Amino acid sequence: MTTSQTNPVLVLGGTGTVGSRIAKQLSAASVPALAASRNGTGADGVVFDWEDRKTWENPFKAAAKASSKGRDEATGNTSGSSRIKSVFLLAPPVLDSAPIMMEFVDFARQRGARRFVLLSASAIEAGEPAMGKVHAYLRELGCRGEVDWAVLRPTWFQQNVAEQEGHVRSLREESKLYSATGEGKIPWVSADDIAAVAVQALTRKDPPNTEFVILGPQLLSYDDLAEILTELLGRKIVHVDLSTRDLEERHQSLGMPENYARMMSSLDNAIKVGSENRVNDVVLSVTGRAPKPFREFAESVKSVWEPAVA
Ligand SMILES: NC(=O)c1ccc[n+]([C@@H]2O[C@H](COP(=O)([O-])OP(=O)(O)OC[C@H]3O[C@@H](n4cnc5c(N)ncnc54)[C@H](OP(=O)(O)O)[C@@H]3O)[C@@H](O)[C@H]2O)c1
User: Fold this and answer.
1) How crowded is residue 90: how many other Cβ atoms within 10 Å of its Cβ?
2) Domain NAD(P)-binding, which positions (predicted)?
3) Does residue 110 form part of some domain?
4) What percent of the chain has pLDDT over 70?
5) 49-75 in b/e burial notation, b at 16+ Cβ within 10 A?
6) For residue 41, which atom of ligand 1 is closest to its CA?
7) Under a CB-based contact definition with an 8 Å cutoff, are residues 202 and 86 in contact?
8) CB 214 within 8 A of CB 152
9) Which of 107, 114, 132, 244 has the fewest CB atoms below 10 angstroms from its CB?
10) Residue 114 is part of a domain; what is its CATH number?
11) Which domain, by its residues, includes 128?
């Protein structure tokens, strides 16, 4: 799979929806991983906080410690050095994430990292704000031969419906799904499939040096999701199609900051006018496995939508 299987892959957001799956898949492939998060939980966990630069060194120290320990056992040699060559980059939860992410890319490069795999989004082109700027930066460094890179641009995650509190609560308590997407369709993708593409991009011998638009197998509107959930749950689930403004207010009422709520509801409006209306064969061609259909995902997690028993 890789030329550097003894070097740990640094997975930022290693406890999150995508990062935790990457760490698990790497471990299953016997590739060591360091799963970074603010608490550093888990067997491969390491403390890393975007807001506390003192913690940025931690993964590199952990890798050096592990590599010197490995050599200790094999040869008795005690000198260690950083062995992180590949980094999965997940943005911090702020709107203007580009400056700090580019600073970290340079920080990691100074410590020997060579390959960067960025999680961006289908809606963000290279050069656009936030991850789009990091995308352009990696591409530019790549053109100069200074890094190997890949940018993952997944569409909307199937997991949103089962993990985002707004959706879970409205499904449990009201049997409703809210959006401002009208009849717009989305090729909902599984985080397992995104992680599988990431693992290939992080570990395969030849550097990808390209972007991957990662889409699921079927185009489904929120009405279609409501129909699938109605069948699976055995009770009527209704899609409530809000205006963009009403969705923005709903997001804010659930605690989302104003500017983030505006951005999220404008993305629903883009879906409404067809921005996500396409499928491709990226998951199959990169991983060798067909992407998971939404119904299969929903079946596997359906207990999360059962109403709480009083
Ligand atoms: N959801 C979608 O439909 C969708 C579609 C396309 C693209 N995306 C992109 O996917 C990304 C989100 O991925 P995800 O769902 O896997 O994330 P997630 O589940 O929200 O996980 C976030 C991760 O970041 C860590 N984290 C949070 N604050 C941190 C900080 N200050 N310093 C260090 N680590 C921190 C969290 O761990 P701790 O909290 O334990 O620190 C966690 O591991 C976003 O960039 C989004 O734009 C999402």
Assistant:
1) 25
2) 13-204
3) yes
4) 93
5) bbeeeebbebbbebbbebbbeeeeeee
6) 40
7) yes
8) yes
9) 107
10) 3.40.50.720
11) 9-154
Tens of pLDDT, residue by residue over 183-227, are: 999 999 999 999 999 999 999 999 999 999 999 999 999 999 999
Report how far ligand 1's centroid is from the alpha carbon of 91 (Å).
7
300: its two tokens: 């596997």
In a domain, 299, yes or no: no
Distance in angstroms (rounded) separating the CA atoms of residues 154 and 216: 9
Q: Which residues line ligand 1 (CB under 6 A)?
A: 13-19, 37-39, 48-51, 90-93, 119, 121, 154, 156-157, 160
Question: What domain count does the chain have?
Answer: 1
Q: Please enumerate in sequence order all residues whose Cβ is within 8 A of that of 297, keeping only pairs 6 or more positions apart, or say none.
A: 158, 159, 162, 190
Task: Work out the end-to-end distance of the chain between its first and last CA atoms, rounded to an integer number of angstroms.
Answer: 50
**Tens digit of each residue's pLDDT (9 = 90 or more) over 227-256:** 999 999 999 999 999 999 999 999 999 999
Residue 19 placed within a domain: yes
The span from the CA of 129 to the CA of 98, in Å, is 7
Question: Which residue among 12, 17, 21, 134 is best mutated to probe the pocket of ligand 1, counting the most ligand atoms within 8 A of its Cβ?
Answer: 17
CA of 280 to the centre of ligand 1 (A): 25
Output the CA–CA distances (angstroms, integers) from residue 224 to 48, 175, 178, 248, in the order listed.
40, 14, 13, 23
